[in-house]
Sequence to fold (235 residues):
Amino acid sequence: MGKTVLIVEDEQSIVDILSFNLTREGYDTLEALDGPTGLQLALEQNPDLVLLDLMLPGMSGFDVCEQIRAAGSSVPIVMLTAREEEDDKVLGLELGADDYITKPFKNRELMARVKANIRRVAMAPTVPLPAERPAEVPLGRRVRVDEERATIFKDGVPLELTQREYDLIRFLAARPGKIFSREALMEHVWNYEGYVGDVRAVDVAVRRLREKLEDDPASPVFIKTKRGMGYYFGE
Fold:
């Protein structure tokens, strides 16, 4: 059975191009030209991924994303935006989006992101929860992980992280002190097979993770930066 991608975009020409290219890659598509219809299809049709424009009639893409997550759906959401403001991207990621791509984008870049996000969900383990919470695995002196529940604890307190933020800290903390470029993190954490396109998604994710993890995000001690090289776990 083929994977289904829901396209929520108010420009018909863009919908037609996206639908054509996705179909050519073997995906089934659903289309919505406004926010309310997109939300309805996302909740009723259970697609494998949502391509979600931010500027929509009836309901913004931010509101659609927020309500999809509020309904308990974990469907991968890739935001489509013509805006360059980082705050928009931070807000979208905070509301539960998995990734973003800035218009105009190349078809190769878009397909890489679609495939990576669908593959990430397909690869996620489905381990039944034990009756008692398992022992937490230390990631450092102050940070631990409950792998069964995919939860990070700092000083014994659970952090409310997105799946991407959880994956990012788990990857870096498993290799303390090792520096990874943004391109390498996109390949290993975002599951892209080779870097394609914009790497600012890494910076946005790191920035948001620091706001949740660090005592002082302006002076991080967990997720640290090596100027001109990349990021590393420094506890």
